Amino acid sequence: MMLVATVSSSREIELANAADLLELRLDLGIFDFLPKLRYIVTCRRKADGGAYEGSEETRIEKIKIFAEKVNAEFVDIEFDVPDDFLDFKCGIIESYHNFKETPSFEFLRDLVESKRGDYYKIATMGKTMDDWKKIVRLLLEFEDIIAFLMGEEFRFTRIASALLGSPFIYCYVGLKKAPGQIELNEALKILKSLGVRK
Amino acid sequence: MMLVATVSSSREIELANAADLLELRLDLGIFDFLPKLRYIVTCRRKADGGAYEGSEETRIEKIKIFAEKVNAEFVDIEFDVPDDFLDFKCGIIESYHNFKETPSFEFLRDLVESKRGDYYKIATMGKTMDDWKKIVRLLLEFEDIIAFLMGEEFRFTRIASALLGSPFIYCYVGLKKAPGQIELNEALKILKSLGVRK
Q1: How many domains does chain A fold into?
Q2: Is A127 among the residues known to form the active site?
Q3: β-strands A39-42, B74-78 pairing
């Protein structure tokens, strides 16, 4: 499993020493200095919990330019982006965000079965333990799924899902970027206590 | 979820302040002082990772006497103990231990489906992530199951299984009682970090 720090500024990159990967949120900040590290490049739309409000063409172009600039390992592209836009030289994380609720297992399974990228990321708002069971079933039945629940009450799922095979744990440094996110160094401490990380 | 401290002496009980329940291991120690707390009473046979080597009749009688003495909440009785012996005035945790391996999912499912007690506890030696998947499936499909993998490499399953509905987390204070057990206060710290415990 890998620790991903979601960052919105060059300053936050400096705080993310413990991260294996950095998720650059182009919608949230300006990166004036980018050290040679491993990056995921993304630019979230307002509807997906981000701040971007321009056109899709411009957004995808911005991601593409940045990805090449930092020699990104992955870009994170939303599930509803048309195939024509999925022309990247690096790996693709295809993502589905839902800040209102967790849809049915069947809905999520259909999404995952139509995967176009290398990983499918499912991040939905958790309300009940049944929502958590849907995520667990997804992780048991599919490979290459990043899945967890958002919400403070379900912050445990960010670690628990990794213990069920979800490869990335998205953490924050500096400012929290999503409900229930765990601070990077706290996540590292938990993983060490659990004996899954040195 | 509840934190259970497995204790082998009155001295260890004093160290177990953070525990919700105390598992008294009659096979391991002598309890000269027993404060008014919530107890699980058990006496493990050598084959199940304990130290008891006498007859079954004497063992069950010992458990019964102690359970009444401390007004136990539960006794922990192994899955192969005949029905005739299952005459207790408190709750029963029916347990299956396997220090060599984790049997097939079907084997474990059959055990659980024949549950006679209030909870069924499955503690088996973990070797692969597939073993962990068997435990996760059990926890998804059945209620009132306590299940996790033994082994240092799988110590994370003691916490992760609780996040999947396994109601008790067995911890140690003083001396470690089983491979992969987490120290009580460390377990509490992890649960607090995960936001599932105050």
Answers
A1: 1
A2: no
A3: unpaired
